[in-house]
Design a protein that fits this description.
4 helices; 0% strand; 72% helix
Length: 138
């Protein structure tokens, strides 16, 4: 076995790479969620709510909920996910180079909670749309 001491730079690389990788994964996931919300909003907006007044209330409710969720996701991307130049610059530190984004545990739990909320909302919307299809309303 080789017991050669590692330099601070070598020790920082795995943590830095993990930080970069985690933030990149969060960015991709959140962007994908925003795109899917846009698609759901488009589907809901195209529904014939004028023909079936009973559909108007659920459609408006889903659209408002999706809009709020999209706003939360956008704010999360701005406040939690490091995408700037400071995140890709190697640093001799054990955390992310930008101190604003150095709380991966808190960030992870916040992103997980919003992702779970999005999954529930998406499932509810898809169930609603499936029901409309079964009833031949769309």
């Amino acid at each position: 076995m080789n017991n050669v001491a590692q330099s601070p730079r070598q020790l920082a690389q795995p943590a830095l790479q993990t930080c970069r990788t985690q933030h990149q994964a969060w960015a991709v996931s959140l962007e994908q969620s925003e795109e899917e919300i846009d698609q759901l909003l488009t589907l809901l907006a195209d529904l014939p709510s004028d023909s079936f007044r009973s559909l108007n209330h659920p459609i408006v409710g889903y659209m408002q909920s999706l809009g709020r969720l999209k706003s939360r996701i956008h704010n999360l991307r701005v406040d939690v996910v490091c995408t700037g130049a400071s995140c890709s610059t190697p640093a001799l530190a054990s955390a992310c180079p930008d101190p604003h984004f150095s709380q991966p545990v808190n960030s992870s739990s916040i992103i997980s909670a919003v992702s779970a909320e999005y999954d529930r909302m998406k499932d509810r919307c898809q169930a609603f749309l499936s029901e409309l299809m079964l009833l031949n309303l769309i």
